[in-house]
Amino acid sequence: MYEELVNLISNIGFPIAVSVYMLVHNTKIVKEHTDTVKDLKNVIEKLMEKLS
Known about the structure:
Layout: H1 2-51
């Protein structure tokens, strides 16, 4: 019984840990990209004001 439990944790625990890591990492990247897009939007709006 103990060996089965250890085997189950080792087989399922690692994929869960990797999934959580990827979720946290990707969330940070998405936030950075969102901030960059907002900055670009502001620059484009300023350029449009100057051109009109």
